[in-house]
Amino acid sequence: MVEQEDRYDFRPVTEKDLPMIACWLAEPHVAEWWDDPETEIAEIRDHIDSISVEPLIVELHGKPIAYLQSYDPHLEDDHPYADQPYGTLGIDLSIGRPELVGLGHGSAIVRQFVEQLLEEGVPRVIIDPGPANGRAIRAYEKAGFVAFDTRISEYGPALMMARDAPQEPD
Prior knowledge:
Blueprint: E1 8-12, H1 18-26, H2 28-31, H3 37-47, E2 53-60, E3 63-71, E4 89-95, H4 105-119, E5 124-127, H5 134-142, E6 146-153, E7 156-164
């Protein structure tokens, strides 16, 4: 279980991380929701130097436990989420280590990361789990996300969820 004092560190993905991420992508709890590992690793490799996608390793107590990426849908041509307000960032998360699934890490990681983004001035953060991915949807709801749309895009069916920055009082 997630402990109150647990804090996650987020560091950029390096070329050395790719074999570990490939192993995570092959785990059944991840493979169900991502494309084949070879395709995904090629995309993650391309994102290492990207301006539109930031691939990150999530660490707990100095040990890598998850892959997280944030992206700006307005920096990619024809991105299916470019209809979101300017400044919106999207995120994706996969806990790589199967023994850590179902313990509350997903919602805790997302909550911490999103709170950092909101503090930095990001107005909205979106996430797009598959509508059948109940475990992820529950985790994102615990992290403060609210569903606002269902879509079919090049990425497949998606339940669009958002967490907006708190409104300043007038």
